[in-house]
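Folding problem:
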Amino acid sequence: MSLLDVFLELEIPKTENPKIFNATALNDFPFAKIGVNYIGFPVILISSKFEQTHISLKNIKLKYLELTHNLECKVSENGKSKIDNYSVIIFKSNEETLQNYFLGIVQSLLNSLSKKPTQKEVFETFRNFVEIFRSLTETPTKTIQGLWAELVLIEQSKKPETLINNWHNIPEEKFDFNADSEKIEVKSSSNLERVHIFTAEQLNPTNDSQVIIASIFTKQVSNGLNVLNLLDKIGNRITDTELKEKVYRIVSKTLGNTFEQTTKIKYDYDLAKNSLRFYRHQDISKVERINIPERVSEVKFKSDLTNIKPTDITKILTDGQLFKDT
């Protein structure tokens, strides 16, 4: 049973007191409860061990997230009420898909805590958690179509962990996946033509690097999959908490303040995975580095891959694991 399923079974408290919650304990995490407040927002309550040396804990209010430490709450569980102090995380949205995203991150967070966490440990863990949601108030760094295509490549790969490990930490990096001598750049097309925009750097790498272009068709459809659906698929294939956190961090930073709107956009999943093709950078028509004047930079151009023969990425002879695991 997912955290969302548990949350949806909770009854909303009949009160306007913001410190009263209906909640249920989480069997896998004895120090935590999932609850609901009077507005119907999901709430996570964490009890932690007090330390004399604990650092000053700062309460945080963001667009979607509210975090309060050492809050005295009245929690009703199985018809019985009890007053106690908790660190309280409130996710401020009634959108079920966004609630599922929030609870997916919470699951990762709880897995990273010890069985009897100290307040300092909770604070340190929350710091990364909060940064994920702070990104949702910032300017987006990439289109939803580009992000969706990258997630499809991860989800379709033989070993998602390898791709996530080598996924760009910031969306502005030159290559989407970079493992030193092995690099993969994902290009998507919504008009079903393999004509993509490249930068000169992407197709003119150093002599010791091999760049593979992953070309994917992306068509918006009402019955397709959105970014959150792909996150669920990827989450079912990986267990590493830090890798899950990295995926959430990149998705949040990429979409920024468009998150709520863009995560509703769906694309044809079958078309995307069936259209996925790989191309070596050597085979693609490009503006050669030698033809770019010394003081000219950020050169971009379109190149047509239609008549180029795709390559089997797993048969490229290199010493790395990125191509083998894709």
